[in-house]
Design a protein that fits this description.
The chain is α+β, with helices and mostly antiparallel strands. It has helices spanning about 50-60, 70-80, and strands at about 25, 30-35, 40, 45. It has one domain (about 5-85). It contains two helices and four strands, in the order E-E-E-E-H-H.
Amino acid sequence: MENKENKMIFCQSCGMPLEKEEDFGTNVDGSPNGDYCAYCYRGGAFLADCTMEEMIDFCLEATKDTGLYTDREEARCQMMDWFPTLKRWSK
């Protein structure tokens, strides 16, 4: 997927930055999906049937040893504010 605006694109399910072609999920026809990452969306469907809170817990666990955050509860609060703005979780 080409990013013509040169703006950071994030997965609209988990918030992962989508930087390389292989980061992007795929549609039913195998074409890249511009909204979701390969870990959340493949073949035109979400890989996990989960709630937003479950996705946040998964993301916190997956990134716990990366140094991305130092305070888990602060990170959770930030995700609880941000995730509802993502396409999958906005109502």
